[in-house]
Amino acid sequence: MIKFIKKIINSEFLPVSEVRKLKVYLVMLFLFVITLVTIPISFIFEYSLPVRIIALAIFILTYSLSFILVKLNKFFTAIQLTIIYSIALTIFYTRGISSFYAYIFFFITLTIIVFYQEIYSYFVYGTLTLVLGILYTLSSSEGLVVINDIRGSIYIYIAALALYYLVSFLQIINNEKLYTDLNLEWVKLNHVNKNYQEDILFYLEEMRIDQNKTNLYEDLEFQKAVVEISKFVAQQILKDGKEIVNIVDLYVYIHEKGLDAILNNKEVSIALKRNANMLGKYLLNENSDMLSLLISFYLTQQPTDKYDKDRYNYRLNQITEHIDEQFLAFALIYFYLDNEINYGFRWNNQSKLTKVEDIFLNHDLSKYFSSELITFYLENQSLFEKYAKNN
Amino acid sequence: MEKINKAFPETKYYREYLEFKHLKGQNQLVAFMVLLMMILTVSYMFIAKYQLIPIISFGLGFLLILIFNYALTAYSQEHYYYLKLNKYITSVGLFTLVLAMIIYLKSPSLIPLFFVVYAISSIYKDIRILLIVSIYFLFSSIMLLINFQYIFNFEATIIVKDLTIGFFVILFLIILLLSSYIIVKEKTFFYQNIALAKEKEYRSLELLLNLQEKGKPRIIHNHDYYEKTKKFLKEFSENNNIKDLFTEKLIILQKLENNQNKEAILSEHQSFDLDDLDRLENLLLHKNSYLQKLILKLKHSQTAKFKTKEIFSATHFQSFNKQNDYIETKILCFVVYYAALRKGFLGLKPINADSVYDILSNSEFSYLIDSRVLKIYEENSEVFEQIVKEVYQEVNEND
Lengths: 391, 399
Hints:
Helix content of chain A: over 70%
Largest sheet of chain B: none
Order of helices and strands of chain B: HHHHHHHHHHHHHHHH
Distance between the termini of chain A: 69 Å
Order of helices and strands of chain A: HHHHHHHHHHHHHHHHH
Number of helices of chain B: 16
Shape of chain A: flat
Number of strands of chain B: 0
Distance between the termini of chain B: 22 Å
Number of domains of chain B: 3
Number of helices of chain A: 17
Number of domains of chain A: 3
Structural class of chain A: mainly alpha
Shape of chain B: flat
Number of strands of chain A: 0
Helix content of chain B: 55-70%
Oligomer: heterodimer
Radius of gyration of chain A: 31 Å
Largest sheet of chain A: none
Strand content of chain B: under 5%
Structural class of chain B: mainly alpha
């Protein structure tokens, strides 16, 4: 339970799939509490005993099914099932009792649907809940009004429910757009950082060769340290450190033979291939997650300037406000990049650039250059090309 | 310092910037909902033939919230904190107004408006606001139950009335708070990761410039870019009938590139001063200059086009704690990571034990490691260190 609460508190460090799992668990916890409370409350409902028993049995069965789906990692189906479950519970309450408290159930159900932040699910199930809520309010007015109530109070109930539905819907749409934009920006930045990493690794590999160091995965001291520490950790978690030694051997073997060679080898067992595939993300001789996180660690140790608001702005006018110097700098950048592309620079693997225009025409140049400079480039493109060819 | 900003303290500023950037749009949505509530309230009171004074009072109440909202948003151009203040004033103000409406109109039909206000406040995606509104919600409900019991005198009474009031209000509040909390955290996930990626990019650029300066060049730049630019800009000036302002500056750049003494340059180019030379120095190509930084940025910002499916792929989240990985993989990854940092990775020096512990245990890096593995490391870091010292014959630490 403590682990679960910690997970909720630190959920900003979890990937989207993990958060979705967390949401299903939370909703299931609520439904469990509500179902538990429903058992004694159902005695005051206007249902006959067999109906009550059948309804409760269906609830328990559906709940168990949701639980199995979560265990099988079928989160999308589990989400749908828990939403249907909460709507069914609402209907059970509203058909069995006529009061303000049954009315609140529509808000609870809408909140559960909003919680998943799935636009289509909200549209389908949320609208259904709203319609059911309005029908219930109109048909159960005696349970919702007080003596000497204000005029048209029933319509206020309906308006409040509709407003709640509307606010939630707007919020979901807003979140959907926000998260899509943020996700896109994040993925773009990850790609860019991966490009930097490739260059960093190139230079570091050169440094390693200059220093006559062996590759880390070939270093016997390193291998021994990994085996010893892994055994120590595994003994405490798995109570047996033997299996981990095989995994370490496999990890080193993948570096030597290559992941594809192991995966394509028909003599290797499926279990071993599965392990190899899992370890493939963390190799030391590729631009992998392992290397990325190692570089990240080294970046924390690197001395850096104090933060200022222009830290992440890469604009030419930050160097000079003089427009003639900006023209000059732009031309220098252009010819420098042109030479890199044309004369053997090993461009990053993801890019298929063949000419310098690919950089200048594919970029949002306004991030780097003023409008005068962009106009200068576009109006003199042929002159730029003429000098670029004239190497 | 909080754990989240330990490894890269600068990320907190960019996260704030992202908050500010998106808060404006969220605030517009809130203002729209306040306006809608104002129109509905005033319209209802007119139709229900209430006296003019309460109609004007409640109308003014909503209007006041909107005026404050508008004014504080305008002031936020001066300082971000006005927009932060605005969130609190709008949320609490709206909640107070609804409470006043319930007390004045004495009808339980207005109580669901609390839920509506809660939902409106949650648009701001701020945990503090949600906590304040939740506490306000709870105390308002208790106050109404104790002091205004007649509001709950329903025509059809049920046996377990008091029990259900308490249960449902608390249950609803918990669901609202927790769901909003997780949604807020989802937003924080992206803000955090974008800020982290931005900072990593900044530091990667710095590292790359250093490596480029020290290492062997990946391409031999045997072109005289200054000379080529000089010719290019000369023709450009001639074509456009403008004075050639560029040649002299390019000559100075060539002299700076050749490490010519600045005093000597100034004596030859008397219309320039030391500030001019310092500024021009940033335009040099071969050094660790800002221009090189810009070139690297332009070069590396080229990314392959990616599919929508990839955008939402969990593979972008780098960690040693992936949901589908076996525990053996998680253990091995962490150990390899630790051993590599202590050994020194590629051409880089080993990181000292204290720094490794500090970052792995007390910073955002700790969330990238399986909690069981991390706990063992935290409790037995001396054992880890002992093994490393015994196995590595020479650990050349960068203290």
